[in-house]
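Appendix B, record 7
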Amino acid sequence: MEDYTPPFRITNDILSYVASISEKIGKISAIGNLESKPHLRRNNRIKSIHSSLKIEANSLSLGQVRDVINGKLVLGEQKEIQEVKNAYAAYEKLDSIDPYRMETLKELHGVMTKYVVEESGAFRMGEEGVFNGDVCIFMCPPARLVPGQMEELFRWMKKAKEKVHPLILSSVFHYEFVFIHPFSDGNGRMARLWHTAILSKWKPVFAYIPIESQIEKFQEEYYDAIAKCHVQGESTSFIEFMLSQIDKILDEVEGQVAEGSEYMTEYLKRMLDVMEYDVPYTASAIMDMLGLKSKETFRKNYMNPALEQNLVRMMLPDKPNSRNQRYIRY
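C-alpha cells (predicted):
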C-alpha cells in the first residue's frame, strides 16, 4: 500500500505568494529583529490568542484576554477564562515543540483544552462535523478512521518537509487537519497553532506574527475556502487563501518592526511611546499627551508618517475625517 499524499496543486498564485512572503520576511529581518522586541512579541501573541479563541465563539475582549494573561481579575465565564490560560500556555511552548511528531500534537491538545474538554489530549471517540456558526460545512470521517488518517498525515509531513515549501506544507496540514477533525473539541485552535508551529520552525519570527488575527478578520472566507476544498477534493484553494492572508499580515508586521530602526523618526518614536497597544485615541488626545498645539505639525510630522508606515491605523478608514475617528497603535 502506497503512502498517502494529500491532493493539492501548485498554482501561479501560490508561487507568487511564496515569493512575496519570502521577500517580506527578508525585509522584516533587515529592518529590525522582531524577536528582540519583547513588548511587541507579547502584544502579537495576545492578538493571536484572542483571535483564535474568538473564531471559536469565546466572547472575551482583547483587553480581557490581556488581563487574564497578565494575571488580573476578569469577570467572565470560567470556561472562557480557562481557555485563555490554556491557549497562552500552549503558545508559550512553540519554541520547543516538534511539529512533525504526532504525540507532541496530542500533548499540546492536552494543554490547550485542560479542564474544559473531557477527551483532552486524546483523539475523539464520537462523530463530528465542521461548523461555521450553526451551519454544517461537512461531516468529518468516522472516529474509527482518525488514528490511521493522522498517522498518514504525519508520515507525509515528515517525508515532504524536505521537498515541499513550509508555507505550502503548513497550509496543506491545516486543511487536512480540519478535514479529519481528530479531537472532540479544540480542532480549530490546534490547526491554527500547528500552522504557526510549522512556519516558526522555518523562520522563528513566525512565532510572533499574529496570523490568527488575520484569519479572524476574514472568518467567512476562511470557512468558505474550507468548504470549497471539501467539494473539490483538494486543498489548493485553502493554500491560496492562507498565503494571501499571511502576505497581508506581513505588511502590518513590517510597520511594527520599523520602530527603532533607521526608518523611525524621533517624532514617531515620541508618539508611539505615549500610545498603548490596541487602545483607541482621538487625535486631540494624542496631541495633548505630546504637548502639541498645531494640528498641521501633528499631521505632518506624526500622524501621516505613522499611517504610511502601518504603525498606527484608523478605526474608521473609510471616513478619515470623521469626528468619531480614533487611532490605534499596532
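Remarks on this record: The CA atoms of residues 2 and 176 lie 18 Å apart. The chain has two domains: 12-257, 266-329.
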